[in-house]
Amino acid sequence: MLYHPAKMPAFSREILRRKISVVVVTYPATPLELSRARLCVSAAHTKDDLDRVVKACEEVREALRLKFSSGMAGGLREPKTSGSMAAGRNGNEAPRWTLTEVIERGTKDAKLTLY
């Protein structure tokens, strides 16, 4: 979700400039606070294709200053081990993964239990 409707055209242009097709939907087609960018994924895409899209979105997010949240409301960076936070976590650190962590983990995180 992109919570800045005024930046949707710029997001679309920047992603398209990187040869990635995107459909942006914003007000009046959606409520003002629910603007979004739609990327179509198919079985023909490889992990490298998806990694390239994630990197491009990160570059555009940085260029357009689209990140508002620290991610504090998200989940843990690592699964809980023996009833405590993962090693090195103090409970106040945002659980947001870096781009490198997302790409390195591949599909492993999808196989972890949530609770």
TrEMBL record:
GO terms for cellular component: membrane; serine palmitoyltransferase complex. The keyword Transferase applies. Its cofactor is pyridoxal 5'-phosphate. The keyword Transferase applies. It comes from the Eukaryota. GO terms for biological process: ceramide biosynthetic process; sphingosine biosynthetic process. Keywords: Transferase. GO terms for molecular function: serine C-palmitoyltransferase activity. PANTHER family: AMINOTRANSFERASE CLASS I_CLASSII DOMAIN-CONTAINING PROTEIN, CLASS II AMINOTRANSFERASE/8-AMINO-7-OXONONANOATE SYNTHASE. This is Putative Serine palmitoyltransferase. It comes from Aspergillus calidoustus.
